[in-house]
Amino acid sequence: MLLNFGFGTSYNGVVSCADVLTLAARDASAAVGGPSWSVKLGRRDSTTASRDVANTDLPSPFSGLQVLIDAFDKKGLNARDMVALSGAHTLGQSQCFLFRERIYSNGTDIDAGFASTRRRGCPQTGGDSNLAALDLVTPNSFDNNYFRNLVQRKGLLQSDQVLFTGSTASIVSQYSRNPRTFAADFATAMIKMSEIEPTLGQNGIIRRVCSAINS
After folding, report:
1. CA-to-CA distance for 186 and 82, rounded, in angstroms?
2. Distance separating alpha carbons of residues 13 and 24, to the nearest angstrom
3. pTM of the full predicted structure?
């Protein structure tokens, strides 16, 4: 495993929770068939946390295309980065209440058969926490089926399907045809995202327990 200590040195032999999470993201990708990439280490952990700030910065699953582009742009990530990172939805699941409106909308941007299939596990009322795979085809593998789904109007979340519109539609099409291009761009975007405003030097701590500030 190649480690690049580009952000600084380790502190007393203890790796920060921030570095652990960054390494875990890289290794999880590789473990399910996705790309790997070099990870800079030396981050320190924050001394505070804000749920409100986190929720403000995270795009909504109901967001339109320009809202998504603007949200990523604020973090120094361009539209191509945004589409590539959205490809992480080749894995994972979503709760029913986050996609219910989409599958019952009878809209033109959703495949009728796909909507019918999803309705079986997500009733119009109740079942808010019922789960559905973001990628119905290969839910446990890192591949480009997420983008193939979008081309076929089978994106589960509205924020997924809107990527196949406007200025990002051509990127989705490219990734749907070329898994290697997607994998390479995903790795590049993950590196960029992992280096957004890292806490370094004496500006943070090394948490002993990741969910709590050191006492």
Report:
1. 9
2. 18
3. 0.89
Q: Do residues 152 and 113 lie in contact, with contact meaning Cβ atoms separated by under 8 Å? A: no
**Residue 13's pLDDT is what?**
45
d(CA 200, CA 185): 26
Residue 30's φ and ψ, nearest 5 degrees, are -65, -35
- Residue 77 in contact with residue 192, Cβ under 8 Å? yes
Task: Tell me which H or E stretch contains 194.
Answer: helix 179-194
Q: What is the DSSP letter of 59?
A: P
pLDDT in tens, 138-177: 999 999 999 999 999 999 999 999 999 999 999 999 999 9
Domains in the chain, CATH or no CATH each: 1-46+199-215 (1.10.520.10), 59-193 (1.10.420.10)
pLDDT of 40 strictly over 70? yes
Q: How many whole angstroms separate alpha carbon 70 and alpha carbon 48?
A: 26
Q: Residues 42-71: pLDDT tens digits?
A: 899 988 888 888 788 888 999 999 999 999
Placement of tokens 């509205």 in the chain: 158
Count the Cβ atoms, other than its own, within 10 Å of residue 89: 22
